[in-house]
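Progress against Task 2.4 (sequence-to-structure conversion) is shown through the following example record, which the project officer requested during the mid-term review.
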Amino acid sequence: MTSSDGERVAEDGRRWSRTRRAEFALQQLRAEIDEPATELRYESEYELLVAVILSAQCTDRRVNEVTPAFFEAFPTPRALAAATQEEIFPYVQSVTYPNNKAGYLAEMGRQVMEDFGGALPETIAGLRELQGVGRKTAQVVASVAFEIDALPVDTHVFRVANRLGLTKEGAEAADTPRKVERQIKRVIPKQDWGEAHHLLILHGRYTCTARNPDCPSCPLTPACRYYARKERLPAPLDELDAARGPLFCNTCDRYFDAPATHIDRYEQEQIACPACGSMQVFDTDDGEPTKTVPDYRV
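Structure tokens generated for the chain above:
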């Protein structure tokens, strides 16, 4: 159900609060996803850390293709510490930013051996001291390897949390991963952070994709802010005459070339009719509305 202002309303007539959305999302995703876990392949804390470093702006599939040979060549922090950046590079050259990552891994191996006695630090703060380990990487390793409560925000978590409505809008919009993390931690119980991280990632990877999300098969649409707004977009118009102009205003029945713009209630810039100001504007090539809904990607 949808209210007059485009917000989702539950079957009992109540609006979906952020907390209620989070509860519903976790419940539904638990039923859909049997094993919410990282898809990176690893057999030790060390291997997990290496894989997560390599996965920055790279797919898990690609990382899983290179790590078997990498771990055979550098099976321990000691072996990695003895290697140079040039020796590591051939094993990681097919991932993104291979030069940088080879350098990070060489230095990380030396740090683990020299500063931590050959064992990975088991805290987020300790992990962040290692070369190539930022906030997100440290949280992933701490959560998965050491069962520390953390809710890392990657591109999938960022997108799904914003689309679903687990975050705020307007002046408090969660437009950075750090803001998303702070806001969703307030609506997801601490003991569920690690599980929620994996559930949201897998949902974003396979259903709520960046382009062409599979809304028809999504179990979260009853609560989804993004879906509710998409459903309120005007239906396409048939039999528009593209020869009369590239754009058509359905409010004043006018074809035109140069549009005006208008900022809607969601602070989204929309194409508008230059004559009447209406946002009921359609592309005459395909009849689709030009109006869009806010989307979120990093």
